[in-house]
């Protein structure tokens, strides 16, 4: 495919050089501003839907940050790896299969001596959300019941959220490891969908409401008691420290890293 020319910034310094893919979107715009404001990072390219990411090959960008749409993010990651970049991904829609294809691609292009490019994919870069997922996973084995409610702005294109999918999968894995069986539920639904989606046996409910940004509640229940874990992103600034941390980390983590918890010292 022929690459369209990309508008690079004229000045290239010894800083870590970053290209933002999906730069015109809600997250892309915030990431451009955050990278621009970071003393050790240099924003060298802003790409959106009409640009070809392959055009980054041979340019100054060392790391690409992808906040696009679930239908294109995997293809972007493969093209960015082919272009020789490390990649940070916040876009949702990843499955075990698509993650596996990225692992295979990374194995093909790795140096064989432990070096090579890094790909860091995180369903949520906000610290409160990362902690909420971690706490839910730790608590899951102690409760008979667990359900996830995610609440987002109505412009969000996917449901359930990537964060809720990951939370549910982690809860299910913790329950399976602890030998817990199915959750108690005698309900016979009158209307399809009344009990939400089911992800690995965990019910997940999606709310879309004007005024919201990104929120999640994990409800854990036992006879006579409930634990509620809640995370609220009131503003997209909540994601930026995590995105910048990922940009700095991905260059020294060859291979695939899934989840920001993997680069935080959560004990
Ligand atoms: N991991 C995290 O912490 C967060 C993840 N997200 C996820 O990030 C993604 C983007 O979210 P928003 O910025 O709110 O969406 P948005 O719709 O505002 O932005 C998406 C942008 O991607 C562009 N785009 C579409 N196809 C493209 C292509 N082939 N190449 C380059 N650009 C392309 C669109 O033109 C648009 O500018 C969603 O999957 C969302 O769930 C959102 C917030 C935080
Ligand atoms: O689309 C969003 O806004 C968000 N998407 C991510 C998700 O689906 O989990 C992260 C956060 O919830 C915001």
TrEMBL record:
As recorded in UniProt, its EC number(s) are 1.17.1.8
Subcellular localization? Cytoplasm
Entry's Gene Ontology molecular function annotations: 4-hydroxy-tetrahydrodipicolinate reductase; NAD binding; NADP binding; oxidoreductase activity, acting on CH or CH2 groups, NAD or NADP as acceptor
Where is this protein chiefly located?
Answer: cytoplasm
Listed binding positions for NAD(+) are: 22-27, 90-92, 122-125
Q: Which UniProt keywords apply?
A: Amino-acid biosynthesis, Cytoplasm, Diaminopimelate biosynthesis, Lysine biosynthesis, NAD, NADP, Oxidoreductase
Give the family per the record.
Answer: Belongs to the DapB family.
Its protein name is: 4-hydroxy-tetrahydrodipicolinate reductase
The major lineage groups are: Bacteria, Bacillati, Actinomycetota, Actinomycetes, Micrococcales
């Amino acid at each position: 495919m022929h690459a369209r020319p990309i508008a690079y910034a004229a000045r290239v310094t010894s800083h870590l050089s970053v290209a933002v893919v999906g730069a015109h979107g809600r997250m892309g715009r915030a990431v451009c501003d955050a990278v621009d404001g970071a003393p050790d990072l240099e924003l060298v390219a802003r790409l959106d839907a009409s640009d070809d990411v392959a055009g980054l090959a041979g340019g100054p960008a060392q790391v690409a940050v992808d906040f696009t749409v679930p239908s294109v993010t995997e293809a972007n990651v493969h093209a960015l790896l082919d272009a020789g970049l490390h990649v940070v991904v916040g876009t949702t829609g990843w499955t075990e299969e698509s993650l596996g294809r990225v692992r295979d691609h990374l194995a093909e292009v790795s140096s064989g001596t432990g070096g090579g490019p890094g790909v860091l994919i995180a369903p949520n870069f906000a610290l409160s959300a990362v902690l909420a997922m971690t706490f839910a996973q730790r608590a899951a084995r102690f409760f008979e019941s667990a359900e996830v409610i995610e609440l987002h702005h109505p412009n969000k294109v996917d449901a359930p959220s990537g964060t809720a999918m990951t939370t549910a999968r982690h809860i299910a894995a913790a329950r399976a490891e602890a030998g817990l069986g199915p959750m108690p539920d005698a309900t016979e639904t009158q209307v399809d969908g009344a009990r939400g989606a089911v992800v690995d046996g965990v019910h997940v409910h999606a709310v879309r409401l004007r005024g919201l940004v990104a929120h999640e509640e994990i409800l854990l229940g036992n006879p006579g008691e409930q634990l509620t874990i809640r995370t609220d992103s009131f503003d997209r600034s909540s994601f930026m420290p995590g995105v910048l941390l990922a940009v700095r980390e991905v260059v020294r983590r060859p291979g695939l890293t899934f989840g920001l918890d993997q680069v935080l010292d959560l004990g």
